[in-house]
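ESCALATION

Customer reports they have been waiting on this structure for their group meeting. Please prioritize. Original submission:
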Amino acid sequence: MDTKLYTWHKIAANRASLVFNENAIAEVAIGERMICIGAFQNALFAFAHKCPHAGVLLSTGYIDSAGNVVCPMHQYKFNIRNGRNTSGEGYFMRHWRIDEREDGVYVGLSE
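Update from on-call: job pushed to the front of the queue and completed.
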C-alpha cells in the first residue's frame, strides 16, 4: 500500500489536449519543473524530463515495445511504470503518479 502524500497538479483538460510527439511522449510544465508524459498501452505515465545518466531530454527518446523509455544518447532503458533501469547501468528514472479524472489529467508529486 502506498502511504506517501501527494500534491496533485492538473496538467491538461483531458488526454486529447496533451501534445504527444511522434514517439508518444509529451512535455508538460508543473510550475518551473518540466516532466514527460508517455502514452503506452492506452495508459499515461509521468516521468523525468532528463536522463539520470547524461541529462539528455527524454522527450527526444522513445518508448519501446516492452514499455521502456529509451534515452536517445546512449540507449539506456528505463521501465515506464517504475523507473528502474532495464539495460543494466544501475540508474533510476524519476517517475510520478498520474490520474485521469473527469475534470482533467493530474500528476501527483510526492511531498
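Sent to customer with the following note: The mean pLDDT is 95.
Escalation resolved.
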